[in-house]
Structure formats: structure tokens, C-alpha cells
Amino acid sequence: MTDLLTLSGVHTHIGRYHILHGVDFAIPEGQTTMLLGRNGAGKTTTLRTIMGLWPASAGSITLAGQRIEKIATPEIARLGVGYVPESMAVFSDLTVKENLVLAARDGAPDTARLEWIFGFFPALKKFWLSRAGALSGGQKQMLSIARAIVEPRQLLLIDEPTKGLAPAIIGALIDCFAELKRRGATILLVEQNFHAAREIGDAVLVMDNGAIVHRGGMADLANDIPLQERLLGLSLEAHQ
């Protein structure tokens, strides 16, 4: 299996704080890899460093054979990387339609792909001409994800998409991610919801103190409660 993304010895400093301490991992093409860890372990910093929002101070990041740790965020996005931050990246003063038009490569989303997205997130079609700022938290999360997938991406970086959402919306997100994977997308996903992690993940990476401390199959970790407690401080069931 070919690795799409590789991090080797990546360090990240934010001001005087040393957040990532030699992060090493590889993400296989066409798989969904869960990035788990306690709060403050460095998960969000890892995604932001890959995306170029916080520059790596040492080490290399390779995407499909190309080094990207020194290039700007817009160029990384043009290479086919979609990013969904925990903060729900939507333009509140623009409509749902305008948000998706801005995210489309040529300013005109593909109609068939939009209908595919609406199948998972029908609220976006219902509120097509409404301001994004007037949407509920769950609907804003739908829009944030829709912005990232309105064009096919070779890699999706998604940070805690189910946080604070109702079970019905979480179910729609799980279905969407499963279909993205079926279509060949590669996903690196930070998630605290055990049900979502177990349903979505193929592989798992666990971080602690800015480094990877475990890597393996998601199913193996899901079935090993003592390992969960050792790595995460509690069982994954407690994260629901």
C-alpha cells in the first residue's frame, strides 16, 4: 500500500513553546487514519503543521512524493489537501451557496457533486440562500465539511468533526466519511467520539506530549481496553 503522506522528525514551535517533538508517521493512500490522544497532546498542532498554518521548525512533510513543509498554505490546498478545523471554518456573513462557490476550484461547484453532498447534509440544500451565521452549530459543521469536499481532494485533514453534535448529525458525518473513503479519499481525522472513531477508522495513531506513542489498527485498539487506558487514561467508551 502506497503512503500518501509522511512526516519524519517533525518539530513545531509556537512562540517559546515546543509543541511537536519529532513526530513520525505515514498515512496510507485510500485509508482513514484516526489521530487520538489526550487534550494538549499535539493533535491539532499536527494538522495545522501539515497544512502549513504553523511552520515545522525541523523535519520533513512529504505529500505524494513532494516535500511540502516549506510551502505556503494556499499552495498546499492547491495540491489537493482539504482542511476542516475544529473551529468550523465558514464565512458567517455569506450564504451557504456563497461559501461553497468560494470553495469550488472554478467558482462553480459541480452540480452532481453538490447533490451528492446534499444527500448527506440536506439542511444545506434547505438553507442554500441563508446566511451561514444563522445556521445551528451542527449545520455549520456540515457546511465546513462540505466546503472541504466540494472538490475531490487527495487528502482530508479533519479536526474533531463530531464535537458537541447531536447523534443524528454524527451519523450523517460517519456515512459521509465512509462514502468518501469508498471513493478513494485519504483521511487523517482527529476524533474523541469512540463510536465514530471505531466506525470510520482503519488505522490509529496515538499522541502524547507531542510525539506518536502508538500506531496500529483501529479495531485492535477498540478491542483492547487496558491499552486504551494506558495510552489515553481511560477507555474509549468514556469519550462518547
Walk me through the structure:
The protein has about 240 residues and is α/β, with parallel strands linked by helices. The chain has two domains: about 1-80 and about 155-160 and about 185-240, P-loop containing nucleotide triphosphate hydrolases (Rossmann fold, 3-Layer(aba) Sandwich), CATH 3.40.50; about 80-150, no CATH class. Helices cover about 35% and strands about 25% of the residues. It has ten helices and ten strands. A six-stranded mixed β-sheet has the order 6-7-8-3-9-10, sandwiched between helices. Helix 3 packs parallel to helix 6 (about 135-150). The longest helix is centred in the last third of the chain and has 16 residues, at about 165-180. It is globular. It starts with a strand and ends in an 8-residue tail after the last helix.
CATH-derived topology of the largest domain: Rossmann fold
Note the run of SSEs as H and E.
Answer: EEEHEEHEHHHHEHEHEEHH
Q: Given the structure, what is the number of helices?
A: 10
CATH superfamily of the largest domain: P-loop containing nucleotide triphosphate hydrolases
* Secondary structure: helix percent: 25-40%
Structural class: alpha/beta
Residue share in β-strands: 25-35%
Provide the residue-averaged pLDDT: 93
Largest sheet: 6 strands, mixed
Strand order of the largest sheet: 6-7-8-3-9-10
Counting DSSP E segments of at least 2 residues, the number of strands comes to 10
Shape: globular
Ranges with pLDDT <50 over ≥5 residues? none
Annotated CATH architecture of the largest domain: 3-Layer(aba) Sandwich
What is the count of distinct domains?
2
Distance between the termini: 32 Å
